[in-house]
Amino acid sequence: MRLQLLPSTVGGDGTAQLLSSYLIDSSICIDAGSIGFHASLDIQLAVKHLFITHSHSDHVASLPTFLDIQLGGGIESMTPITIYATEVTANNIRQDILNDRHWPDFVRICEELGQDLMRLEIIKPGVPVEVDGKRVTAIPVDHVIETMAYIVEDEASACAIITDTGPTSEIWQHCHEVQGLSTVVLELAFPRRLQWLADASKHLTPDTFVTERQKAPDPDQLSILAVHLKANQYEEIVGELGELSLPGVEVMKPGVDYQV
Ligand SMILES: [Zn+2]
Ligand SMILES: [Zn+2]
User: Fold this and answer.
1) In the predicted model, what is the mean pLDDT of residues 22-30?
2) Ligand 2 centre and the CA of 212: distance in Å?
3) What is the CATH classification number for the domain harbouring 252?
4) Cα 143 from chain centroid?
5) Of the ligands numbered here, which is closest to the C-alpha atom of 59?
6) What range defines the domain where residue 204 resides?
7) Among 80, 109, 175, 215, whose CB has the most other CB atoms within 10 angstroms?
8) Considering the entire predicted model, what is its pTM?
9) Is residue 250 predicted with pLDDT exceeding 80?
10) Ligand showing the shortest atom-to-Cα distance for residue 20
11) Residue 15 to residue 18: CA distance in whole angstroms
12) Strand partners, 189
C-alpha cells in the first residue's frame, strides 16, 4: 500500500509540518488536518473513508473545507463520505465543529434531507473496520485527550500510525501481533530541552522516542517515520534525531509516497 503525509504548508517546498493527514492509497485518509486544504481536489474527492485520531485542531482543521468539497458535488453524483471516530471524538466533532456555529451540522442536514451523503460511524478500540481491502484498527494511546493510533493492514503488508502520544504501551503490544508490519509512523513533537512541555502535553522527544521505538517488534528491521515535529523546532529535532543514528529511522517527508 501507499502511504503519504499530505503537505500542510502553502508556498515553497517547506518540510515543516503544521497539520496531520495521512493518505493511504487513494480512498483512505487518517486525520483531517490538511486533506481539506490540498491543492488537488481530485485527491480530496477520492477519499471516501476518513479516520480521526482525536479532536485536536491540527488533526481536524480542514474537516469543514474537506466536507464542503465532498458535499459540493451535488446529491446526484455523490458517493457518501464516512468519518470514523470513537464516541468521544465523534461527540467532540459534533459539538465543536459541526455545530452550525463553526460549520453547518451536516449530520443533522443529511438526516433532515433523508440523504445518505455523510456518515459519522462510531468505532470501538480494538475492533477492526474493513474498507476497500484494508483492515483498520484503532488502538488507544496516551495523549491529553482520548486519542487512537491506527493499524492499517492488507494482504501484503501493514503499517501503524502512532500520533499524538506520550510514552504508551497498548499499541506496541498490538504491533507485536500484526503480520507483515513494515512501517511505523511515530510522533516526535519536541526537542530534548522541551521534555517538560512534551510531558505536560503528552508528546515525545528524541529520548522518549528512542524508548518507544524499543517497544516495537524487531525495531532494527522496521521503517520508522518520525512525524509531528513542531515547525519552529524542526531543525533542532532533526539534528537530535540524526545524532542518534537509529537504523531505519527517518523524518517523514510531506508529499512523498512511501511504499509500505
Ligand atoms: Zn493532539
Ligand atoms: Zn497533533
Assistant:
1) 97
2) 17
3) 3.60.15.10
4) 14
5) 2
6) 2-259
7) 175
8) 0.97
9) yes
10) 2
11) 10
12) none
